[in-house]
Amino acid sequence: MSERWYQEILNQAPELAGAVALHHGSIDMELRLWVEEALHSGTLKAVVCTASLDLGVDFRPVETVIQVGSPKGVARFLQRAGRSGHQPGELSKIYFLPTHSLELVEAAALKSAMKENFIESREPMLLCFDVLVQYLGTLAIGEGFYPEIIFKEISSTYCFREIKKEEWHQILHFITEGGDALQQYDEFRKIEIINGLYKITGRRIAMRHRLHIGTIVSDAMMKVKFLSGGYVGVIEEYFISRLNPGDVFTLAGRNLEFVMIKEMTAIVKKSSAKKAIVPSWNGGRMPLSANLGLMLRKKFDEVHLLLDKNSASPKKMDIELRVLKPLFELQQSLSHIPKENELLIEQIETSDGFHLFVYPFEGRLVHEAMAALLAFRISRIVPISFSFAMNDYGFELLSDQPVPVDDSNVYELFTVEDLTADIQRSVNSAEMARRKFRDVAVIGGLIFQGYPGEYKKTRHLQSSAGLLFNVFSEYDPHNLLLRQAYHEVMEQQMEEARLRNMLERISKSRIILRFPEKLTPFCFPLKVDSMREDLSSEKLEDRVKKMQQQLSRDLEKKPVR
Amino acid sequence: MQSPVSHKILNQQFWLTTDRTMFWEEEKTLIVSDLHFGKTGHFRKSGIAVPSSIYKEDLQRLIVQIQYFQPGELIIVGDMFHSSANKELELFLKWRSDLSGINIRLVRGNHDILKEDWYAGAGIQLSLQTHSRRQFHFIHDISDQLEKKEGYIANERGKSSYFFSGHMHPGIRIQGAGRQSLCFPCFYFSKKYAILPAFSRFTGVAMIYPDAEEQVFAIVNQELIRFQ
Q1: Domain B5-227's class?
Q2: Are B178 and A386 inside 8 Å of each other by CB?
Q3: Structure pTM?
């Protein structure tokens, strides 16, 4: 996103070239340091940045922060504001620039939340075995460690105060033998036990461990270089893998034509094309916080006062809401605006298929879990496949057949009963744990990302987290890191507690089912900006055959080449 | 399990299986690619705990295929062994001596870095570049052949030829209504060459984008599903 903003600012005001810079995690380190320095000394007038400048660096000269799009939480918004006027006694100044109309409601919600000091707290993570495995490895490449001493140490921390002896033994076993089925882990070599001292003696294993210390997992990155030499920056491998030679994309503020991939480097050349694909980063997609979600729902409640002709003083309403009156009227006439104690569901049929939109306003992650859960519960009624999409306001289930949700079963579908069991069953299919496993596997040292600049020699150790996930699920389901992935999905990713609260709230709310004839203002952002997942209760073979038929129908429609 | 699926190339009868093998009926030859034997062992040796069961199962699947088709020869179009020798290869050697009746022909792939006499000792005939039988040629990486333009179409005395290759671990993405999308390993047949799926299940896939006249068989659990 920052790339696009930077480009657009320069398009609109070319005279700003030189006074504006771009800063994000994927930009070459040298350039990034230069930007930080120039910002400090005041040579730069504006920097377009991502969360990369949220923390750490001290920028006294910053006068103003402009938050583009939702900050996702009250605390985060305040934190960002605090990047300006960064010294005691100074005033911080922040502007909020919404990127679509519903974000104006967020602006109103933010203001109220700040007034009420309704700020999120931070929950610490517990029993992070991947980090423990890494920590033990780090100790082992040094002087080594004695388990009894280290157990005392780690169990005195908040994170591991509840670790069980059994789990500790399992970890020791994991780092020395590989896993519990001894025979399956023949020839495993990592940490050795020498007279009771746990130590890594292998030089290469030690080196690989050193290269992988850290707990911030980014997607596999690929260097981007010009055909003529010259280094541009790094980019997610996932993004590059979808490009064809000749495609033009934007990086570090330049339009680049993709030429080819050579030894883990994407080779590009300059392009003068007007249209370019902007890479999207999977990281940094924070979900809306519970606090902001609650405030949002309250604001929608207020909207009803605004729309009520008999209401005494609309002037007192937030200006953001007043501006959006036409949009609310459209939403109300096509469908409905949910009150604080209501849950809105819209069912719409389009050429894409049958959509079911649900708006709990609980943040993307809870919606993701909720979507999987709902899809699972519906799929118990009839065999059906969904792809689902979610944003911070709601989620969408999309199917190629009508979705059997109506007054008769809707409350049942949102029940708290059997929540944990149903989540576990829907998670398995939805593969959330699989994605979580990537982080766990990288931190726990299962994924080797290669030596810097030495791609070829280590290729025989490359594998994807997805593949490892399959192997463990099938052959070693008790694997500690695998279990942690599931655990973390439940605790953090799915925010089970929040999900439960939401369902409890819904059970006390009224569920409003609507069948609008066309897409509504509420569902629009979901249709355009969303992440997608799959869930199916049909047999895989049947699904593919169905797709095959659809495919051939499409082919028939097309004129012969 | 689904029974093998028929596929004819240049009037020869081939059978494709969901176990990622292909049987050439006239020549009684089983063709596979990218076995990557020993891969999990290398992971363990390097401190990455991958169980060996997946390797043992790969080996087992190959035995079942051999028992089913009773081929006289097994042709591997490259990457039979993942890297240098380790304990997992000892298991292979034991297995080899139990099945000494079958010829094994390996067209060397980029992963096959063992010494030539190791292959000889294991009863494996090694072809360094290509191996040919009738009008069919076996090569590990078809792009090597595509670069040598004149050799490619090779109408030797008016006879057309066909290549079998591996290396790529081809996969196909299938899209349906409701924006559903799934991805599977596959057999890929163009007019002049085929790319076989990787036999080992401890491998990923690289997407292919077939043209309209090319055929793809996606391996969906226990079924082969034909596209185009």
Answers
A1: alpha beta
A2: yes
A3: 0.67
